[in-house]
Design a protein that fits this description.
This protein is an alpha/beta fold and 329 residues long. The protein folds into two domains: 200 residues, 3-Layer(aba) Sandwich (Rossmann fold), CATH 3.40.50; 114 residues, Rossmann fold (3-Layer(aba) Sandwich), CATH 3.40.50.40. It is built from nine helices and 14 strands. Strands 2-1-3-4-5-6-9-10 form an eight-stranded mixed beta sheet. A four-stranded parallel beta sheet has the order 11-12-13-14, sandwiched between helices. α3 links the parallel β3 and β4. α3 packs parallel to α8. The longest helix is centred in the first third of the chain and has 15 residues. The protein is globular and about 60 Å long. It binds asparagine. Asparagine (ASN) binds next to loops. Belongs to the asparaginase 1 family. Keywords: Hydrolase, Signal. It comes from Simplicispira metamorpha. InterPro entries: AsnASE_II, Asp/glu_Ase-like_sf, Asparaginase/glutaminase-like, Asparaginase/glutaminase_AS1, Asparaginase/glutaminase_AS2, Asparaginase_C, L-asparaginase_C, L-asparaginase_N.
């Protein structure tokens, strides 16, 4: 029998529509329902038995923690169904990397989960969504994609959901990881080159089935002449952790150091990340993290560090434990 793949649709440009075929950048996201998306791709029937579910119909910049939880619960429930072999999530590209990482941390399954989007709406010339979705379904239907964590298929590449980020907003070659893709998918066949070593899915200590809510974690951005109004406002608002998107190696302006130390003294966890696109933050380089009791984000970009901090805080508020989690996931 053919593998059964469920496509969970959440909106984004892959479900977008423009006024004319020339509108590659000017269009409305989250317009086309999942049934229509799937009906427009009859080629899928040779890859898998595909069923669609409309979970949300939103642009991904409007994803909230509630959306993450609801989507995670649905993915988890489907992954336990013996008649489901793989799951695809269609998603806007703006926060796709956050959702993919979240799912990789909290869904306990070895079944393939593939998150996919597009840079152009389906109505545009050279629309990229159809092939991206075809690739996603074929990866989700394949046995060799099992146990590799949550994957992202864009532009013929198979990326690790943990590592990948949107790196450009005007090209179809938008998703990159500094550590490289895991493989490529060409005409329905996967070609693998490496495998993730960080903990995910089956090997994660976190489980969506135990998570009822996510704590408030926000991000402040580092820049020259930085003021501390944002840090203080988040502190007053009762944030549980604050991610600092620092300059360079995660460096922190002198005035921001004082504000962040004050927040830590009130019990807020401080996660030191970097605003530069690549590289990673070393503990006690640039700032004395041991002395201040701060956590470093390793190679996670600020938006991914926020996801891991939220998930980790559902289990522990111990900064040493948080740091262990940031090294391992
Ligand atoms: N290319 C896209 O999907 C962008 C859109 N704003 C979204 O994330 O929903």
């Amino acid at each position: 029998a053919q593998p059964h793949v469920v496509v969970l649709a959440t909106g984004g440009t892959i479900a977008g529509a423009g006024a004319s075929a020339a509108n590659s950048a000017t269009y409305a996201a989250a317009k086309v329902p999942v049934d229509k998306l799937l009906a427009g791709l009859p080629e899928l029937s040779s890859v898998a038995k595909v069923s669609g579910e409309q979970v949300f119909q939103i642009a991904s910049e409007s994803f909230t923690n509630e959306h993450l939880l609801k989507l995670g619960q649905r993915v988890s429930a489907l992954s336990k169904q013996p008649d489901v072999d793989g799951i695809v999530i269609t998603h806007g590209t703006d926060t796709l990397e956050e959702t993919a990482y979240f799912l990789s941390l909290v869904v306990h399954t070895t079944k393939p989960i593939v998150v996919v989007g597009s840079m152009r709406p389906g109505t545009a010339l050279s629309a990229d969504g159809a092939l991206n979705l075809y690739d996603a379904v074929s990866v989700a239907a394949s046995k060799d994609a099992a146990g590799k964590g949550v994957l992202v298929t864009m532009n013929d590449e198979i990326q690790s959901g943990r590592d990948v980020s949107k790196t450009i907003n005007i090209k179809t070659e938008a998703f990159k990881s500094q550590w490289g893709p895991l493989g490529m998918v060409v005409e329905g066949k996967n070609y693998w080159f490496r495998a993730p070593v960080k903990r995910h899915t089956m090997n994660s200590e976190f489980n969506i089935d135990d998570i009822k809510a996510l704590p408030a974690v926000d991000i402040v951005y580092g820049y020259s002449n930085m003021n501390t109004t944002g840090i203080e406002a988040y502190g007053k608002a009762g944030v549980k952790a604050l991610v600092h998107a620092g300059t360079g190696n995660g460096s922190v302006a002198a005035q921001a150091v004082d504000s962040l130390k004050a927040l830590r003294a009130q019990g807020v966890q401080i996660v030191r990340s970097a605003r530069v696109p690549d590289g990673f933050v070393l503990r006690n380089a640039e700032q004395p993290d041991d002395k201040y009791d701060w956590v470093v984000a390793h190679d996670l970009r600020p938006q991914k560090a926020r996801i891991l901090a939220m998930v980790a805080l559902t289990k522990t508020n111990d900064s040493k434990e948080l740091q262990r989690i940031f090294w391992e996931y």
